[in-house]
Design goal:
The protein is 15% helix and 27% strand. With 97 residues, it is α+β, with helices and mostly antiparallel strands. Bound molecules: FE2/S2 (inorganic) cluster.
Length: 97
């Protein structure tokens, strides 16, 4: 299964292996492809993506809890380390400032 990833200035399709998080798949694209300060432990919120198209799948309680802590209310913004896409998606990485 592939996810279409929009990076600054380019668009590419990346493979996501079964069980792999979206953050892990994006990280294979290079050191600067995504920031994930906690390494996927769902405590930093730096791995945000905007879902542009497709079904991102259900949100677990850990992701929902961190979103509330970080005051993320836009339903299109998800934490890629908690996402295990089951279908094709189009996402844009949101780099922290
Ligand atoms: S990598 Fe820290 S919350 Fe996703």
């Amino acid at each position: 299964m592939n996810v279409t990833l929009q990076l600054v200035g380019e668009v590419r399709d990346i493979p996501v292996a079964p069980g792999q998080s979206l953050m892990q798949a994006i990280a294979t694209q290079g050191r600067d492809a995504i920031t994930a300060l906690c390494g996927g432990c769902c405590i930093c919120g730096t791995c945000r993506v905007r879902v542009l198209d497709g079904d991102p799948g259900p949100m677990g309680e850990g992701e929902a809890h961190l979103r509330r802590q970080l005051d993320i209310t836009d339903p299109a913004i998800r934490l890629s380390c908690q996402m295990r896409p089951g279908s094709c998606l189009r996402v844009a990485v949101i780099h922290p400032r």
